Amino acid sequence: MFAKILIANRGEIACRIIRTARRMGIATVAVYSDADADALHVEMADEAVAIGPAPAAASYLNIDRIVEACRGTGAEAVHPGYGFLAEQPAFAEALAAAGVAFIGPHAGAIAAMGDKIESKKLAADTGVPTIPGYIGMVDNAAEAVAAAEEIGLPVMIKASAGGGGRGMRIAFTEAEVGEGFRAARAEARTAFGDGRVYVERAVENPRHIEIQVLGDKHGNVIHLGERECSIQRRHQKIVEEAPSPAIDEALRRDMGAEAVALARAVGYDSAGTVEFVMDAGRHFFFLEMNARLQVEHPVTEMVTGIDLVEQMIRVAAGEPIGFGQDDVRFDGWAIEARVYAEDPSRDFLPSSGRLDAYRPPREGPYGQATVRVDSGVAEGSEVSAHYDPLIAKVIAHGPDRATASDALAAALDDFVIGGVTDNRGFLSTLIATPQWRAGRLSTGFIDAAFPGGFAAARPGHETLRQLAAVALAIEITTHARLDRLPGRLNDEVDAWRHWVVAIDEERFELAAERRADGGLAVKPPRGKRGLVASDWRPGEPIWTGEVSGETLIVQVQRADDGLRLSCRGFAVTARVMAPHVAALAARAPSRQNADADRYVRCPIPGTVVAITVAAGHKVRAGQPLAIVEAMKMENVLRAEREATVARVVAEPGDSLAVDDVIIEFE
């Protein structure tokens, strides 16, 4: 077994690999760019080596620097994690030349399966069902259009290298094919250093099912069941689960056999994933093979009890897999939610900045379920515009899908993040939808569930009443503490006292009385009393307690206009007032920004790639106006209404901050 390994990655996956290596008694070496000098994975590792500037091409994609770090530290092996160099045959070959083991498949398997064009050819030759398409590289937009005409619209335009949803575009018209080709190639070059793309028919509203395979250097290959990865935005997964609600034992056996056959065809000798799309008739087609560890591997680990990182390390050290196909057991249900720094209400545009607050949910039991958190940041960490905006993964494992979903929802409510915009509210809303609860999934799930784009749902009246009671309890608890300070007048709520709680446009008249046991009795003027009980203390960001016997986990932020309360994907502002104050507040006029729609502002810190309009141009709703690159993704900014361009403020190449003006309308 290795005494020391180097992790050629960053963020949560580097931290996750370090945890397993530490448990195995293996020393670890972290590498880091200038932007990651204070990162958590650097702090966790036994040693750390600087490898270059912030841009990935000059650091995490720099093979020579990483090989040099191995020589300098005596690392015997390298785990690449996912992304960056994980699927680069040249990296595995360079390590082999330096006498360093690669914790992943051999270079030949990476070349055959990590390249999507070559893997499609091999799958077809092996007899695995494949999606109809143009099996080969397209060199320009004209070739892409010709291929689309031959295949039939709609089509997917995909990068041959890499993954993670980058370098992928769907096109429903010939015009979109040309635009999609340019965007996919540009993103692929930026993210992977490889601009090759290909075209295949788009299977509309399919399920995305993948099979986890594991091989060793002794010819053994098995599978560890499927994962459902249909919940995607921008062709990138955000919620995954194992098993799939659409797969039975017979179909699992068939898909597993195809995946194992494909892995055997290349002598696959590590953990890898064979991805399929499945139509409504449960016909499945090979999509691609990821010759690496997947972001979503924890759900497989939770249902099988098998540590995939440990298995990869053991296989790389020459050990055979210590169990067979018949030994693999599937226990319960696991669901993973990826928590990103992004704004779901603005088409999931990434966010960056410093985490001025960060408290992940507690790990361990949540009722009958268990929660695990894979994170790569801490309070004070920087979410850099140079890298993927993944903050953490929250994984819930329970005896069934409903229990796991409930535990995941509770854990998301228990997750505190400040300083960047994030997607926790969206995730909570998603797993509460009837479609999710019924397991009616497809890669078009988000568009179908949120047809006008995501906007936080309005809580029902009863939920608002519960939150009003929570707000009242928070304010009374806060003032009770202040009342105990020297020099304060006592204003104990020992007898019934009336309050008005305004939540957005609704108002709740409540009366409250403190009980001897520390709880708070709350009731409407002519209603039945209920008990609010919590051990919350002023200043804590999470209020956990019971409202009339129902457990709630509510995030609490104090704002100028009251309390900001977040729960179950909802976010409301509550203001607790005495009745006479509420009467005056009801007469106060509201203010609006009349000029808000005159400008196109930069939604994220990034670089302007292109401006597609000029002063005097009349634009229509949905028309592309500008392209801003951030976090290795190209983001197209489109007009929200018909308008005439008054002036273009920014130019290609400009580096912009959030809300910098790009275009002004008349």
Walk me through what this model shows.
The chain has 666 residues and is α+β, with helices and mostly antiparallel strands. Among the domains are: 4-103, 3-Layer(aba) Sandwich (Rossmann fold), CATH 3.40.50; 132-201, ATP-grasp fold, A domain (Dna Ligase, domain 1, 2-Layer Sandwich), CATH 3.30.1490; 461-585, 2-Layer Sandwich (Glycoprotein, Type 4 Pilin); 596-665, RNA polymerase II/Efflux pump adaptor protein, barrel-sandwich hybrid domain (OB fold (Dihydrolipoamide Acetyltransferase, E2P)), CATH 2.40.50.100. 27% of the residues lie in helices and 33% in strands. The protein has 17 helices and 40 strands. The strands form nine sheets. The protein has a nine-stranded antiparallel sheet, with helices on both faces. The chain has an eight-stranded antiparallel β-barrel with strand order 25-26-27-28-29-30-31-32. Strand 13 (271-278) and strand 14 form a beta hairpin. The longest helix is centred in the C-terminal third of the chain and has 23 residues, at 461-483. The radius of gyration is 27 Å and the shape is globular. It starts with a strand and ends with a strand. The model is unreliable at 485-494 (pLDDT under 50).
Shape: globular
> What is CATH's topology name of the domain at 461-585?
Glycoprotein, Type 4 Pilin
Uncertain stretches: 485-494
* Percent in strands: 25-35%
What Rg is obtained from the alpha carbons, in whole angstroms? Answer: 27 Å
Number of distinct helices: 17
**Order of strands in the sheet with most strands:** 14-13-10-11-12-15-23-21-20
Q: Give the strand tally.
A: 40
- CATH first level of the domain at 461-585: which class? Alpha Beta
Named at the architecture level, the CATH assignment of the domain at 461-585 is 2-Layer Sandwich
Structural class of the helices, strands and pairings? alpha+beta
Q: Report the end-to-end length measured between terminal Cα atoms.
A: 68 Å
Mean pLDDT: 90
